[in-house]
Design brief:
- By secondary structure, the protein is of the alpha/beta class.
- It is 39% helix and 21% strand.
- It contains 15 helices and 21 strands.
- The chain has a seven-stranded mixed beta sheet, with helices on both faces.
């Protein structure tokens, strides 16, 4: 049993303004796995004031890039040493299957290394060669930190979402207030412990579990200079409106309804092996999950049959069990949301190939849903257009490549997607026509050196690598 009865504010563990602790429940069986303090607006005020004072005091801001890199490299080393514990806690609080939380630790290392390399290679200050040397004027271009960053993250992949924001923000010299979901109070408490061990200056970082109302108080705070948010498109719209009114810098990584385009020559065995992870990772609670499966009409029933066989073969159950592939939804309302979408698909006339709205046998104590595949889906159906955020896949038919691209792009979202083909050049040609921020070919993993983010309602701005680091800097030009 884990208890965090204090909040990590400005580099110190302090008493919360509200002493009552939140029970953290297991999504598997609803047992209590821990307790944690929750931040209120008064705690946000303390954190933001400390962050602002630290930024204005310039201690971290004026620390050399090399020293900032060394500190964050030490954080990454400490995180790697605690990888098994981190994975176990996230499995317990989120219901994410153990295979997923353990595999994710290597991804955190790659993400961190990409940010560290970007910081090492960054031109923090450079002098431009004059375009007109006769003027005798030279321009010195500097990258300055933005200021106080409010980093607001969702529950579904807490460590990855947190480090994708705090690493570049801190590497650039900013102060950070990290607002995390109540469900992740335990894993994010451990993150705060690790941050505490690297000895950042007072005020530079706070880690606050809090509800949505407190989150809005944070992002609206007049001393917050930038909002970095990952979450739903609806919440993103609200945050963008606040940022627009206050002219804050903002980056948003939002929802997705990603297509997997299976070209006619694709090896279906390889496709299914890839979609097992690309479509159903993290119990389907993933913004990048390829949940719209686009199959050529000539092979449509073959794809539907193979996908149903795959989904029905995946063990559902206790996320701690190493044999489990799909665990429970994070909360009861999320479980009901997914079941409601399954009912909607049936009502809309889609063919239920496997699964359904029923809770899996023997798993009624937890927030489980039955993994589901729909066929005969048309692009106008809700299950083809809206983000379900659970293990529900829909299969759409296309006539030719132009039709496949049209259907893939017929979405309000544009976060991720995939193309599957025996011909890599043909797959690349299709990928270049899909309006999403990331496209994978034949199940290639998403890289951390290139930028990650969305088109359309999937967000604004980019994360990862040099581009992601740049999101936390402002340019200053000095002419001499």
């Amino acid at each position: 049993m884990i208890t965090y009865d204090r909040l990590y504010v400005g580099g110190s563990w302090t008493e919360p303004s509200e002493p009552a602790l939140l029970e953290i429940l297991s999504p598997h069986d609803r047992s209590v796995i821990g307790w944690a303090a929750q931040a209120q607006p008064a705690d946000v005020d303390r954190a933001v004031v400390a962050a602002h004072a630290a930024f204005e005091g310039r201690v971290w801001r004026d620390t050399s890039p090399a020293a900032r890199i060394a500190a964050l490299r030490q954080f990454n080393k400490l995180r790697e040493e605690q990888a098994d514990r981190i994975a176990e806690i996230i499995t317990d609080e989120n219901g994410s299957a153990a295979w997923f939380t353990r595999a994710g630790q290597a991804g955190l290392t790659r993400q961190a290394n990409a940010y560290l390399a970007a910081a090492e290679n960054c031109d923090w200050e450079r002098t431009l060669t004059p375009s007109d040397p006769d003027t005798g004027v030279r321009s010195v271009v500097r990258r300055e930190p933005v200021g106080v960053v409010a980093a607001v993250i969702p529950w579904n992949s807490p460590f990855s979402s947190a480090t994708s924001k705090i690493l570049p923000a801190l590497l650039a010299g900013n102060s950070v207030v990290l607002k995390v979901s109540p469900e992740n109070s335990l894993s994010m408490g451990l993150l705060a412990e690790l941050v505490d061990r690297i000895g950042l200056p007072e005020g530079v970082i706070s880690v606050l579990p809090a509800d949505r109302e407190t989150s809005e108080y944070l992002i609206s705070h007049p001393r917050v200079d930038k909002i970095a948010f990952t979450g739903s498109t609806g919440a993103g719209r609200r945050i963008a409106s606040i940022a627009g009114t206050q002219l804050k810098r903002v980056s948003l990584e939002l929802g997705g309804k990603s297509p997997a385009v299976i070209l006619p020559d694709a090896d279906l065995t390889a496709v299914m092996n890839g979609l097992k992870f690309g479509s159903l990772l993290n119990n389907g609670e993933s913004c990048i999950a390829q949940t719209r499966i686009l199959a050529p009409r000539s092979r449509y029933e073959e794809v539907v049959t193979a996908l149903a066989a795959l989904v029905e073969s995946l063990p559902v159950g206790d996320p701690r069990d190493p044999e489990t592939f799909i665990g429970p939804m994070v909360r009861g309302d999320q479980q009901q949301r997914v079941r409601d979408y399954i009912e909607a698909g049936i009502a809309e006339g889609a063919r239920l190939v496997c699964g359904g709205p029923q809770v899996p046998t023997g798993l009624r104590d937890g927030f489980y849903v039955t993994p589901t595949v729909f066929a005969d889906v048309t692009p106008d159906m809700r299950i083809a257009r809206e983000e379900i955020f659970g293990p529900v896949l829909v299969v759409l038919a296309y006539d030719d490549i132009d039709d496949a691209v049209r259907i893939a792009n017929d979405s309000d979202y544009g976060l991720s997607g995939g193309v599957w083909s025996a011909d890599e050049d043909a797959a690349l040609a299709v990928a270049r026509r899909i309006r999403t921020g990331t496209v994978t070919i034949n199940g290639a993993p998403i890289g951390f050196d290139g930028p990650f983010g969305g088109f359309k309602t999937s967000g604004i701005g980019r994360e990862y690598g040099a581009v992601g680091l740049g999101q936390y800097t402002e340019y200053q030009t000095i002419t001499v």
